[in-house]
Amino acid sequence: FFFQAEDGIRDLVRSRGLEMCIRDSTSTEDGIPRPYFGHRGRYLYELRVEGETGHGSIPVQAPAAEVFSRTIARIFETVKGPDSVKFGRDTYAFTTGSITSPSFNAHTEVAIYHIDFRIAPTSDPEYILQDMQKVAKEIRQQIADEKGLELDKIPAVKFSIFGSQYQTFTGYEFTGLQDLPGPWLEIDNPVRQQAMQVYRELFECEPPYDQRNLDLDEANQHDPKEGNLKVRDFYNFSTDLTGLAQLIRQAEKDGTKPPQIAYLGLGSGIEEQAHRFREWCPINSLDNAAAYYMALVLKLAEEA
Asked: Which residues are bridge partners to 25 per DSSP?
């Protein structure tokens, strides 16, 4: 939901940068939406193993399928993401993949799996990736030792950022790399303060945020940039706001100033229902979210 309107609001955008509200679900089961001020980053990697193929009746010394399956099994057993006090543990998931072979009678030639990282804005995706690379190296060496082979005879395990192919309506084609850092709007940001003011005036209450079960005393549960560490005022997943990363990355390549975009999230529907079979949405959350969008636009207009 971009506030790129006419007259006064457009002038306000020029002077303060673009303000943006994303509409992914933030409501409670009672239909009360909550403003969120950040979400996890999304990094999509490809794990790829290429090996020797041949008829299934003829054993292959180091099958790609063996390297592939043992590497993934060990990753599940040993690799853990870092744990942020504010955002919780970083996660990864093996999502989609493919195994190819010249025929049903032949050994696996190429095995691919996609790994979806969801990490805190304060995290570095290299943390998990390096652990996975270490596992792959150990498994290849273990297989080489077991079979009495040189390491270069064992299929390599390659990790790379996955890039989706896109085409615009003008026919321009480009690769959208899936390395999208998560944003966080700090508690002293004027846009965040404004968003909270509009919320309190409209709903006459504080947002009913989920409380995180952290063993923190009163003195240590507040961070000057992240706010109350026990309050979950952010999406657990990544949202469409990751598209901002593409703009920032392009600005870095061009040597220009990154776009100044302040963001928050508030939307109808229940976050835990997202991408689920038979997802459902409280009807009153639609009204509440729409009322908030209008109130926020009117607030912007007042200040223009």
From this structure: none
Q: Which has the closest alpha carbon to 48: 160, 125, 199, 146?
A: 160
User: Helix, strand, or coil here: 227?
Assistant: strand
* Tokens encoding 59: 């054993």
Distance between CA 197 and CA 214 in Å, rounded?
27
Q: What is the pLDDT of residues 229-241, one digit of tens each?
A: 989 999 887 775 5
Answer for the pair 40, 120: CB distance below 8 angstroms, yes or no.
yes
Instruction: Say if residues 74 and 115 touch (Cβ distance below 8 Å).
Output: no
**Model pLDDT for residues 1-36, shown as the tens digit of each residue:** 333 344 444 454 444 555 677 888 999 999 999 999
CA separation for the pair 268, 74 (Å, rounded): 40
How many CA atoms are closer than 13 Å to the CA of 80, on its beta-carbon side?
A: 7
Band of the pLDDT at 141, cuts 50, 70, 90? very high
* 44-53, 188-197, 228-237: range with highest mean pLDDT: 44-53
Q: What is the largest CA-CA distance in the chain?
A: 77
Give the Cα separation of 8 and 6 in Å (integer). Answer: 6
Neighbours of 192 (CB within 10 A): 20
| Two structure tokens written together for 140 | 């290849």
The first and second tokens of residue 13, run together, are 């955008």
Residue 239 burial (10 A CB sphere; 0-12, 13-18, 19+)? buried
DSSP per-residue string spanning 67-116: HHHHHHHHHHHH----EETTTEE-EEEEEEEEEE-SSTTB---EEEEEEE
Q: Is 46 helix (H, G, I), strand (E, B) or coil?
A: strand
- Has this prediction a pTM greater than 0.70? yes
Query: What pLDDT band is residue 292 in, cutting at 50, 70 and 90?
Result: very high
